[in-house]
Design goal:
Length: about 290
């Protein structure tokens, strides 16, 4: 067993989705499309007598913005793997803001734990454990499957076993902002909200980044999920001719185009994001 291991998983902006409830967590998830982003979550896993999870958000200079002790989904994952571990996660983007960070944290945690404890799991098995934790805790539906690779993803079935097509790019930057947390469990656990979401689903894959934005916007309008802050921001983008839509599920928007950055900067601090070219992977232990 190694002393420690570090892994990274990219995040994911979901543009539109339809929930799929299967007979098991493996068959439960969503179909839909989104963008795998190069920003994500780095996780350090070390042997410990008692499992402990610490979530830290930092700025680019390494200064701590937010620190939280404990994470039920990650703690469930570690218990399911049959180990005790100290898990430290690190990210730059806001948590619970529609950037797929729970999926990234779970995936990277499973990979790092597998390496540190020599569990002998395959990448698919690590992802299955992460997906199960995400589904049971209602923190997401399809992000873990999506972030197994880069590009613009279109998931044609639920779970990580699904057929996923990816547009590899290259793509221009994607700009995003958030107005605060929009906790996923309250929405994913609501039958009424999920029925509206299912009816709003556009039913096809995007052929380009521009079409993804168009289909996502159509979905967000029909889903009934747009918050007042998001509505105001989308109206400003519309007035400026900026393609934009709501992050799913997050109280924020993402946009593209030459005018996106100046328009969004007038609303709130903007995150300039690149489309990821690859999925999760292990990092050198000293990279932490």
């Amino acid at each position: 067993m190694e002393k420690a291991a570090v892994a990274f998983c990219p995040g994911h902006i979901s543009g539109y989705f339809r929930p799929v409830r299967g007979k098991s967590t493996r068959e439960t998830g969503s179909i839909g499309a989104g963008i795998v982003i190069s920003e994500g979550v780095t996780v350090l896993v070390e042997k410990a007598r008692v499992t402990d999870v610490e979530i830290t958000r930092t700025n680019r200079q390494g200064s701590v913005i937010e620190r939280v002790q404990g994470s039920p989904p990650v703690e469930y994952l570690i218990e399911a793997l049959g180990i005790n571990a100290a898990v430290s996660t690190r990210c730059h983007l806001p948590i619970s803001a529609g950037f797929g960070l729970s999926a990234a944290a779970l995936t990277a945690s499973a990979m790092a734990a597998n390496q540190a404890f020599s569990l002998g799991l395959s990448q698919a098995e690590c992802s299955l454990h992460a997906h199960e934790a995400e589904i049971l805790h209602k923190t997401g539906l399809g992000d873990i499957a999506a972030c197994q690779g880069g590009g613009i993803d279109c998931r044609k079935g639920p779970g990580i076993d699904a057929d996923i097509t990816r547009l590899p790019g290259p793509f221009p930057p994607v700009y995003a902002l958030t107005f605060g947390p929009l906790p996923s469990p309250g929405i994913l656990g609501s039958p009424v909200a999920m029925e509206r979401v299912s009816l709003a689903f556009p039913g096809r894959c995007p052929g380009s980044l521009e079409e993804l934005l168009s289909l996502s916007r159509e979905f967000s309008e029909k889903s009934g999920l747009i918050t007042p802050d998001v509505r105001s921001a989308l109206d400003l983008c519309d007035s400026a001719g900026v393609p934009a839509s709501m992050t799913m599920l997050g109280n924020g928007i993402f946009a593209i185009g030459d005018h996106a950055l100046p328009v969004l900067s007038g609303i709130s601090p903007v995150f300039s994001l690149l489309v990821a070219t690859s999925g999760p992977g292990l990092l050198p232990p000293d990279s932490w």
